[in-house]
Amino acid sequence: MRSPRLWLVAVCLVVSGALVLPTVHYLHAQSVEDLQNSIADSTSKIDQIKQEIAKLQAQLNDTRNQKQTLQNAVKTLDLNIKKITANISLTNAQIVQKDAQISKLSKGIATTTNKIGDVRGQVGHTLSELQTLDDEPPVMILLSGATLSSVFDQIAALDSVRSGLQNKIAQLGNLKDTLQTHKSTEQEKREELAQLQANLSQQKQSLAIARQSQNDLLIQTKNQESTYQALITQKKAQQAKFEQDILTYESQLNLKVTPGSLPAVGSAPLRWPLDSVIITQYFGNTPFSTANPQIYNGKGHTGIDFGVPPGTPVKAARGGVVLGSGNTDATCPGASFGKWVFIKHDNGLSTLYAHLASFSVSKGDSVATGQVIGYSDTTGYATGPHLHFGVYASSGSEVASFPSSSCKGKIYTMPVGDVSAYLNPLSYLPKI
To answer: In this predicted model, what pLDDT tens digit does every residue of 160-207 receive, in sequence order?
Structure first.
C-alpha cells in the first residue's frame, strides 16, 4: 500500500495555515437570547418613531402653503424641533440595536473560534493516530505472524482514519468561512454604528440651531405680528439695495467665462447638497423674482432655493477647495447671503451655499463630495428658512470685496461673477 507520509505532511501544512485564530476582544454579559430580544424591541421602537416622524413631516409640508405670518412661522419652527427630537430618538434606538447586533456577532465569533480550536485538537489527534497506523506497513505485519484478515483490518482502519481526517479538514474550512463572514459582518455593523454616532452629533447640533432660531424670531418680533411683518418689509428693502450694489460692482468686472470650460449639461457632475430635496424657487425669472423686480433688478433668481428647516446639514455638491466663507450680516444684517460658503470644483464649476446657521470650513480647505460643510438657517435676506444654492462658472467668478450703499462705510466680501457665470443648478444636478 502507498505510504501516506507525504500526504500527512501536506495536511499538516494546510491545517496550520488555515487556523490563524482571532483574538476576541470583548463579550457582553448578555446571552444571545437577551441580545435577540433587545434587537427585536429596538426594531419595534424604530418603526414606531419612523411613523411619528412621517406625521410630523406631513404637518411641516402643510405649513409651506400657509400664509406668511408670525404664528405660522413659530408653528413651523416648533414642528421642526419636534421632528429633530424624534430623529434623535430614532438614532438612539438604532444605536442600541446596532450595539446589540455587534454583541451578538461577537458571541458568534467566540463560539466559532472555540469550535475551530476543538476541531483543530481533533485533527491533531487523528494525525497522530494515522501516523501510528502508517508506521507498520502491511508486509511487516504479515512477517510478524499476523493473519491476512488482521492486515485487511489494519488497511480498513487506515482508510477510516484518513476519511475522518478529510471530514475534519472540510469542517475546519466551513468554520473558517463562517468566522470570516461573522468578522466581515461585524466590521460592517461597526462602520454603520460609527455613522449613526456621527449622525447623532449632527442632529444634536441641528436641534440647538432650531431652538436658537425660534428664540431669535420671538425676540426680534417681540411676539408681535406687526413687528414680524415690518421685519420682512425691512429685509426686502435692504435686499433691493444690496442687489443694486452687486449689480453695479459686477458690471465693472472684467471676468469672462472660458468657452468649453464647463461640463456637459445633463451630465450630473454635482450631487444634491441636501438629503431631502424640496425646491421652493427655481433659477432665472421665476414668479417671485418677476413679482419683485426691485429686489432682483430684472436679472432673475441666481440660484435655486430649497425649503429646509433650520439646522439641516448642508453638504458639498462635489469635492473641491473652499474659495471663501463668510457672513454678510456682519456688513449689513438681513441684506444678502448671510453666512455663506463658496467651493471651487475640478470641473469648471463653483458652488455657493447661503443663509447658513453656521459653517465648518474656511478658505483653502479641501472638502469631499457629501461632506457636511454647514447647517441651514435664515441668516441674510431670508423671509423663511431655506438654503440658497448657486452654481457658477469658475472662470467667470471669484470672491471679492465691494462697498455697501445701504450700510454706509461697510464692505461686503462674498462671491461675485459675470452675468454669464451664473448657471442653472438643475443643468448639473441629478434628476429628482
So the answer is: 767 877 888 888 889 889 999 999 999 999 999 999 999 999 999 999
The 10s digit of each residue's pLDDT in 214-241 is: 999 999 899 899 999 998 888 888 888 8
What is the fold, at CATH topology level, of the domain defined by 5-214?
A: Helix Hairpins (1.10.287)
- Give the span between the Cα atoms of 98 and 100, in whole angstroms: 5
- Gyration radius from the chain CA atoms: 34
Burial class (CB in 10 A: 0-12, 13-18, 19+), 33: exposed
CB atoms within 10 A of CB 366: 11
Give the pLDDT score at 290.
47
Q: Is 379 exposed, middle or buried (0-12, 13-18, 19+ CB in 10 A)?
A: buried
Residues 411 and 399: their CA atoms lie apart, in Å, by: 13
Select 238-427's CATH number: 3.40.30.10, 1.10.10.10, 2.40.40.20, 2.70.70.10.
2.70.70.10
CB proximity list for 348: less than 8 A, separation 6 or greater = 258, 261, 262, 263, 393, 394, 395
Threshold 0.70, pTM exceeds: yes
Strand residue runs (E) in 238-287: 279-281
Q: How many CA atoms lie within 13 A of 277 on its CB side?
A: 13
Q: Greatest CA span in the chain, whole angstroms?
A: 120
